[in-house]
Amino acid sequence: MSTITNTIFSPELAERFDKLVTIYPVRRSALIPMLLYAQDEVGYVSEAVIQEIAKRLDLFDLEVRSVLSYYSMLRTKPAGKYNIQVCTNISCMLRGGYEILDHCKSKLGIGHKQTTADGQFSLEEVECIGACCWAPAMQVNYDFHEDLTPAKVDEILAGYSDGKGAK
Amino acid sequence: MADVTITVDGKKITAPAGTLLIEVCKGAGIEIPAFCYYPGLSLQAACRMCVVRQEKVPKLQTACTTQVAEGQVFFTDTPEVIQSRKAMLQMILANHPLDCPVCDAGGECELQDMSFKYGVADSFFAEPKNHREEQKWSPVVYFDRPRCILCYRCVRVCGEGMDDFALGVQNRNSSSIIAPNVPAHLSGVVENGVELAQLDCEQCGMCIDVCPVGALTSGTYRYKTRPWEMNHVATICTHCGDGCKTTLGVRSTSDGSEIVRGDNRDKSGINGDFLCNKGRYAFDFANSTERITQPLVRQANGEMKAVSWEEALSYVGKKLAQLRDSRGGKSIGVIGGNRLTNEEAYLLQKFARSVLQTNNIDHHRTADYVAFAQALAGTTDRTASLRDTLTAKAVLMVGGDPTNQNPATAWNLRTAVRLNGAKLYIANTAEIKLRRQAKAFLHVSEFGYGALVAYLTGDDSSASSAVADVNALSSFRDAIKAEENPLILIGSELRGAELKHLIDFGLAIPGAKFALLGDYANSRGAADMGLLPDMLPGYSRIGPIETQPFDSKTAMEFAAPTEQGLDMLEIFDAAAAGDLSALYVVGSNPIARYGVDPASLRNTFVVVQEMFLTETAALADVILPAANLYEKSGSVTNSYGDLQQVKKAADRAGVRTDFEMIVRIADKMGADVRKLVPFGTGVRADMGQTRGAQSGEADRHAVWLTANNLEPRLSPFDPYAILDEIQRLVPGYGLMRLQLLSGNDQHLSPSATAVTDNNGLCQISNRRDLILPSNDTLFTSGTLGRYSAMLSDLRQNEALRRLPQTDQTAAD
Ligand code: SF4
Ligand code: SF4
Ligand code: SF4
Ligand code: FES
Ligand code: FES
C-alpha cells in the first residue's frame, strides 16, 4: 500500500480512505466510492484527486480516468454550489419532466452541464433518479424535490438563492 | 487435461477439456470470425462476432469464451448465427467511415474481410456518423477514432503484453473511445490551438499490429502506399541481439527499391507476435539521403573524390598488397562489424588471415562471447534459444535490461510469467522494469556482480559486497538452486571470470541453460565466425598447428599466421606508435565507439566500407559505399545462438555488399578467389527450369537443391558458397539447410575448446573495455541508429516524457 504524505483530503476523509481500501477483497474495488466521496469534498474530481486516488489504490492514473469517464455523476469540472439534476426519464417525461428542465434552463439562463456566472447553480439533465412515484422529480445536491410544477421550481430555486439550503 | 469429444457442425472433434471453442475450431479448420479475441490476451467477449449455437443452451454463445466439455454440440454456420453476425457488423459499421479507399488497413483489414463475407452492404442506421479527426499520439502511433471498432485488443496488448498500460477505454456506449495515458489538458502539446492527448509509452507499435482495422496507424507507413503495391520480404531485424523476423514492405524507386514498412506480417518468426519499435520503424536509415553511393578516394590535397568502382578497388588492392609485402601482414589491422552476415564475417577473417596474412582482427565486442563459449566448452544442450524464454518454468536473470536492450526477450519473459506462471528471479544493479514480473528481485550493489557470483558459488563472505540487504541473499540462492531446468540469462555487463563463474554455478543445477545477451543482429555471429585476434571461427585458439585440438578443421585448412594478433585496442595502440600500415574497417565505427584519437591514424592507410560518413569513415583514405543488412542475403546468429536467414529486401543503386567488396579487393590483390570462396562446386545446375509456371512462388525444387548442396555456386559472390565452408569447418555450425532456407530458426551451440590455462580469460579481466556493452536503449541503435530519422524523433519524444515514472502496477 502506498503511504500518502500530504494528502489533499481532509483528515477525516483521508482516514476514511485508509480504512476503505482494506475492506474489499481487491483494493481497486474502493475506486468508485472514493471518487464519490472525493467529489463531495472537493466539489469535483480534480487532477489532484485522480492522482491521489490512483496512488492509494496502486492504479495507473489512466485507469482512474477510464472509470471516471464511464459514470455521468462524476464530474471533472466544478459544479455550482447547488447542482440541479432534472430527471427526464420515462415517468418524469410523461409527467412534464421536459417542461421542468426547460423552465430551469430559462430561469437560470444556462443549459445542460452548465453553471451560472455567479457559481450558485448548475444544471444537468439526468436519467431516472428513483423518484418515479412522485414524478416529475429533480435532485439538488442530495435533496430530492418531487411532484414539480414550474411554480414549485421557482419557489425551490428562490429558497436556495436565499441561502435556505434544504427543503 | 483429459480429452473430450464435441461435435461442431456435425463433425466430431477431440480436444483437451477446457480449451476455448474458438481454438478447437481453428485447429479443425472451422473458421469462426473474431475481432476482440486475440490468442494469449485476456478474454473480452466484446465484439460478439464469434457467436455460435450450442445445443440445449437458450442463447447464442461466444466461441471465444466457451470452454469445451464432453458431449457438447455446436453449430457455427446456421442462418441464425449468420444473421446475428451480420447484425453485429451493422452495429459496428454504424459509425464506421467509408474510408477503405484511403485507409492503411485497406486490403489487410479484418472488418473488410468480414463485411465482404457476410455482405452487410445496407444499414438500418439513418443517423449521421459520429466523426472525429484523427489524432497523433506520438511520432509513431496515430489514432483514427471513427475507424475503431472497440475490440480492446490494443488496450490488452499494451497492458498485459507490454506491461505499459498506456491505453485505456473512456466514456461508454457508442461514445466509448480508446484513450492514451496523457490526457490533452496535461500533454502540453498544442496544435492549431487544440491540446492533444499523447502516448507516453515504449512505442513498440504492438497496438497497431493487433488492431484488426485501421484505427491505429503507424507514423512511418500511414498513407504511403497500399499493401498490394509492396513486395513483402521476411528478413531479420538489424538492431538488437534478439534477431526478430521482420517483414519489410518494399517498393521500386528510381534508384533501387525502398522500404516503406516493417511489420510482423505472418508471425512465423522466432519472435512470434512481437516486434519492437526498432524492428517496426527503424529501417528508414536505408532510405536516408545521407548515404554514400559512390566510392570515394582521398586525393593528395586531402579532399575526397568520387571515383569508379574499378578505380577504387584497384587502388585499395594495390595499396594493401604493397603494404603487406613491404611492411608485413602484421602491420595491417582489420575491424569487422556486428551487422554483417555470418558469411561476410567469416569471409572477412579468412581474407584477413589468408590474404592479408594477419591475425590483427577484431570487432566491437558487445558481450564476452569468447568467455561464454569457453565456460560452456565440453557441455551439450546447455545453451538456450530465444524460444526457451517463452516456455521456461524458471528464469534467473543476472544483469542486463531486456526491456530496453532486448525487447523480444522481455516480451517473452512477461508472457511466460503471465501465461505459464514462470518464476522470474532478477539480480540487477538497477531497478529494471522486468522486476515487476519477478518473483524475487535482488538489488545488487554497484559493481557487485563479481561478489554476487562469488556468493552464488558458495563464498558467503562476499555477501555484503554483493547487496545491501544481505538477508534476501541466501533465500535467493536457495530458490534458484532448487529450480529444475532453469534458464540463466546473463547481461552483457558480466565478462571474463565473473561470467565464467556464474556459468559454473549454473552448470551445477541440473538442466540449466544459458544465454548471454549482446546487442546487434550479428554480434554473436561476429564472434562465432572468428572476428577475433586469438580465435579461429568456432573459438579454436590460434597457435601452432600441433597445439590445435584434433578436430579443428579450420586450423588445418587455414593458411593463417600461427601467432595471435592484436585486439581492437592494441590495433589502435599500434597505430599511435606508427606501426600500423593499413586499417581495413568493414561496417564498424571504432573511432567513436572506442574514443580513438583520430590523429593516431595519421600514417595509416585506412579503407572503410560504410553506409554513412561516420567518425571512422571521415578518416578514411578510401570509402567504399556498403549495402546494409536489409540489402543482402545470408544468415545471422542472434545472442542466443539461433541461426536465421537474411533475405535481400531493398536495393540502392551505387552500393555493394561487403561480401562482394571483400572478394573484389582480394582479386585485385592477386589472391586466388576460388580459394577464398569455394564457388563452382556442386553437381547440378538449376538454370531456372523449375520456375516457369510457378514463377514468383517459392521455388521448392531450387530450395531442395540448395539445401542438399547440389546447386553449383556459380559466382564468387554467392554467400552460400561460404556457408558451405562454414558448415563444413566451423565447430557448432552443423546446420540444417532446409530449415534455414525455409525461413525458420535453428539453435546452434558454440563449441569452444576448453581453456586449460587461464590465459583466455585473464586478458579480459585486465582489459574490460575491450568488451564494450553498447547499452542501447529502446530508441538508440549504435552508430546506425543515428541515421534513423524515426529513432531520433522517438528520442526527442522520449525526452519529453510527461508522466512521472511511478510504481503504479496493474490492479490484478
Ligand atoms: S506503442 Fe506499444 S507501448 Fe505504446 S501504446 Fe501501443 S502497445 Fe502500448
Ligand atoms: S483501436 Fe483498434 S485495437 Fe484498439 S479497440 Fe479500436 S479497433 Fe480495437
Ligand atoms: S527486439 Fe531486437 S531484434 Fe526484435 S525488433 Fe526489436 S530491436 Fe529488432
Ligand atoms: S423517471 Fe424520473 S425519477 Fe424515475
Ligand atoms: S471474438 Fe468472441 S466476442 Fe469478440
Name the beta content range of chain B. 15-25%
Rounded mean pLDDT of chain A is: 93
Largest interface, by Cβ-Cβ below 8 angstroms: which chains and how many residues each? A-B, 18 and 21 residues
Percentage of residues in helical conformation of chain B:
25-40%
CATH topology of the domain at 110-287 in chain B: Alpha-Beta Plaits
| Highest-level CATH class of the domain at 110-287 in chain B | Alpha Beta
Question: Can you tell me the residue ranges of chain B where pLDDT is under 50 for at least 5 consecutive residues?
Answer: 689-698, 758-765, 805-812
SSE series of chain A: HHHHEHHEEEEH
Please write the CATH class name of the largest domain in chain A. Alpha Beta
CATH fold-level assignment of the largest domain in chain A: Glutaredoxin
How would you sum up this structure, described in words?
The complex is a heterodimer of chains A (167) and B (812). Chain A has helices at 11-20, 31-42, 47-57, 61-70, 90-94, 97-108, 150-161; strands at residues 82-87, 114-115, 121-126, 138-140, 143-145. With 167 residues, chain A is of the alpha+beta class. Chain A has two domains: 11-70, Arc Repressor Mutant, subunit A; 82-161, 3-Layer(aba) Sandwich (Glutaredoxin), CATH 3.40.30.10. In chain A, a hairpin with a 5-residue loop joins strand 2 and strand 3 (121-126). In chain A, helix 2 runs antiparallel to helix 3 and helix 3 crosses helix 4. The longest helix of chain A has 12 residues, at 31-42. Chain A starts with 10 loop residues before the first helix and ends in a 6-residue tail after the last helix. The mean pLDDT of chain A is 93. Chain B is α/β, with parallel strands linked by helices and 812 residues long. Among the domains of chain B are: 3-93, Ubiquitin-like (UB roll) (Roll); 110-287, Alpha-Beta Plaits (2-Layer Sandwich); 370-517, Dimethylsulfoxide Reductase, domain 2 (3-Layer(aba) Sandwich), CATH 3.40.228.10. Helices cover 29% and strands 17% of the residues of chain B. Chain B is built from 29 helices and 33 strands. In chain B, the strands form nine sheets. Chain B has a seven-stranded mixed beta sheet, covered by helices on one side. In chain B, a hairpin with an 8-residue loop joins strand 13 (231-236) and strand 14 (245-253). In chain B, helix 2 (79-94) crosses helix 3 and helix 8 (309-327) crosses helix 22. Chain B is globular and about 90 Å long. The interface between A and B is medium-sized, with 18 and 21 residues. One iron/sulfur cluster binds next to helix 4 of chain B.
